[in-house]
Amino acid sequence: MQFLRQKPIPHLVFAAFAIAALLQWVSTPVALISGFLITQIFGNPFDNKLQAKYVKLLLQIAVVGLGFGMNLHNVLEVGKDGLGLTIFSISLTLVAGIIIGKALGLDRKITHLVSSGTSICGGSAIAAVAPVIKANPNQISVALGVVFLLNSIALIIFPPIGGWLNLTQDQFGLWSAIAIHDTSSVVGAAMEYGERALEVATTVKLSRALWIIPVSFLSMWMFKGGDSKAKVPRFIILFIVAILINTFLAIPSFIGDSIDFLSKSILVLTIFLVGAGIDVKMIRDAGSKPISLGVSLWLIISLSSLGIILFLT
User: Fold this and answer.
1) Does residue 304 contact residue 159 with C-beta atoms inside 8 Å?
2) DSSP string for 141-185
3) How many folded domains does the chain comprise?
4) Which spans are transmembrane here (predicted)?
5) What is the pTM of this model?
6) What is the DSSP string of 77-88?
7) Kind and range of the H or E element at 309?
8) pLDDT tens track for 255-293
9) Which of 136, 135, 132 lies closest to 220, judged by CA?
10) How far apart are the first and last CA of the chain?
């Protein structure tokens, strides 16, 4: 193993799979698993912090690009349909988190971070809420470990479950946007399921991400102090601008198709990098109680939202 780490093999293998992901030669689940396995066998040839920075940037670029393939009227219709379910799922998850966290005897701040990450948008929500409640680095890393583990599992299992249940494109898009934590896993799973599912999932997920702001203020009230600064992520604004441009300006179809293909290529590459950045030690160090909380909340939000979607549609 040490021999491999000292040779250029890790860089070559990593680059080869990254190119395959960028060219969409592999699906999003395969990209995730490949990234994880490569770094477990050869080690990660790149700095984790730098890689995480690029993952965030690439995901934002991909999401903005997807906006050029969406129509404002369709987006408003989808957003309206998903608003009630979004409010219900966030409220249910936060309340259930408090109850289950107390039952497990879990640290209050870890409980709130995991609950916030599960209810809104994974790592982004945790990063936004952490300074508000004055969470320490260990509490943040534990919450991130739990959420990233469940995100990775969701990306792999949700598309086949949706197929097994014969969910329509709209149903799956809405379900994945509500039940999967992180934006990268949501759009990755939806992209695997279909074009319409991707459009619905992206729209609902990004509207759900805006709830970071009220939840941050709620967190400040619950924990009495901290940094109360909460802003709308810039890429969400650019995503909306892209939708407006595509709706009201006559963009040639070949340009729109090219942007759409490039965005999806970047997305698959991002998923590969997410897999490569999975920190097994961080997940192991989280312990059983935070993972039990995360799994419990995930099951609650997944099953309840699925039941409502099937009942209403």
Assistant:
1) no
2) HHHHHHHHHHHHHHHHHHHHHHHHTT--HHHHHHHHHHH--SHHH
3) 1
4) 12-37, 57-76, 83-104, 110-133, 140-161, 235-255, 261-280, 292-312
5) 0.76
6) HHHHHHHHHHHH
7) helix 288-312
8) 878 888 898 888 888 888 888 887 777 677 767 899 999
9) 132
10) 53
